[in-house]
Design goal:
The chain is of the alpha+beta class. Helix content is 21%, strand content 43%. The chain is built from 9 helices and 20 strands. The strands form 3 sheets. The protein has a 5-stranded mixed β-barrel with strand order 3-4-5-7-6. Strand 19 and strand 20 form a beta hairpin. It is elongated, with a radius of gyration of 38 Å. The N and C termini lie far apart (107 Å). 22% of the residues are buried. The N terminus is likely disordered.
Length: 406
């Protein structure tokens, strides 16, 4: 008999005594009261616990047998479900974090909660050993763990502690901060030459690239960062195109200046696509002056005949020329020039076509009749139409650096 029923009967008996004893009528009343109480007790005892609802806010109650098979077989992939149980343990596989959730009948579920760099482990560990209700999305059957699996990765999914209704762990509660992201990357030594991110062996990994900014520019919603990294004794030019960034404001990238050190933190997807997480200014590991000196020292001197006679054989080679500018066309910082490079007793002859992007708006303009030294890559042949309508073909050079003799 439940406590409130005993209390009810005790109160009824006490009322009989206060009324002056238990006569026949009193006994009848008492008997009637007890009978009523017994009937109420009978109804109360027969009451069963309320069954769990089949749906809660669009989440289906997860029947183990229904979901204990491959998603391609049961066709339930992506179904929103809720599961009651006890969080038994946490494990990880290739930075993925998993919980084992055990129900009262002993059935177990695998609950994925995201990747380690992006999650607060302490917040997730706070529910280990606790009774919880998990609101998740069904993924299928895990061969490795031999149990059905689901995930709580997203703003619509969460864990609610059963014994403390209303206490939830949501996406924001276990989303790692920028500081934690950076700490994880630095601890796990994820440094990579950025251009190598296209290699298949780096798919589905977290990496960081440190370098020195040559230029940062913005077009529409995209930020283009030209920077250098050092590989052994070689300086490698890199280009990062950033459409969005998870833990930083993309507009802050516009505050980068030439010569700044930068460290980019990113995830390489299964198709080698880049998702940028954060960035920070860093101490430059070298200077742009070192890059320039190194490049100029690598450039080889060619004659006009070398590049005009065998343009495809020399294409892509780093070259050095000294000559006289005979024509200049400017479009902002982009400069197209015709330059004579063969020294004669009366001046220069043999024309090449030079394309050059000035490093900044403050760089000196190049004028006709300037004597310049060009350092750049050979580009084969360039054909253009003259003012008179004739097609002219010249050897082309994509200049990296230009020195003006004054």
């Amino acid at each position: 008999m439940k406590y409130y029923e005993k209390k009810f009967i005790a109160l009824m008996l006490a009322s009989c005594v206060l009324a002056g004893g238990c006569g026949e009528k009193a006994q009848e009343k008492e008997t009637d009261s007890v009978n009523v109480s017994k009937e109420q007790g009978k109804e109360t005892d027969s009451e069963k616990e309320e069954p769990e609802p089949e749906m809660i806010d669009g989440f289906e109650k997860a029947e183990y047998e229904k979901f204990n098979s491959y998603a391609e077989e049961n066709g339930l992939d992506g179904t929103n479900i809720y599961i009651d149980g006890v969080v038994k343990e946490r494990s990880s596989e290739n930075t993925y974090i998993f919980f084992v959730l055990e129900q009262e009948d002993g059935n177990q579920w695998l609950v994925a909660s995201g990747r380690e760099p992006l999650r607060k482990i302490k917040a997730l560990d706070s529910v280990i050993g606790k009774k919880v209700r998990v609101f998740a999305s069904y993924m299928g059957f895990s061969d490795k763990f031999e149990m059905p699996s689901c995930h709580i990765q997203g703003p619509n999914f969460y864990i609610e502690q059963t014994e403390k209704l209303g206490e939830k762990i949501t996406w924001n509660d276990y989303k790692a901060s920028r500081k934690q992201i950076v700490k994880w990357f630095n601890k796990n030594d994820c440094e990579l030459l950025f251009s190598k991110s296209e290699k298949k062996k780096f798919a589905d990994t977290y990496k960081a690239s440190t370098g020195v900014v040559e230029e940062a520019r913005q077009y529409s919603d995209d930020t283009f960062i030209d920077f250098y990294q050092k590989k052994g004794d070689e300086y490698v030019s890199q280009l990062a195109i950033i459409k969005n960034i998870t833990y930083d404001d993309i507009e802050d990238l516009g505050n980068l200046s030439a010569g700044d050190g930068i460290k980019l933190y990113y995830y390489i997807g299964e198709e080698n696509e880049i998702s940028f997480l954060a960035f920070e200014k860093a101490d430059p590991p070298f200077s742009l002056e070192e890059v320039e000196i190194d490049y100029k020292n690598k450039c080889k001197e060619y004659t006009y005949e070398d590049i005009a006679r065998n343009p495809e054989e020399t294409r892509g080679n780093d070259a050095k020329f000294r000559g006289e500018v005979i024509q200049v066309l400017e479009d902002g910082n982009s400069v197209e020039m015709r330059v004579n490079i063969t020294k004669e007793s009366y001046g220069y002859s043999d024309t090449i076509y030079v394309s050059y992007d000035r490093k900044s708006e403050n760089e000196d303009r190049i004028l006709e009749d300037d004597i310049i030294t060009i350092y750049g890559k050979l580009g084969g042949l360039e054909t253009y139409t003259s003012i008179l309508g004739a097609d002219i073909t010249l050897p082309q050079v994509f200049a990296e650096y230009i020195e003006i003799e004054k």
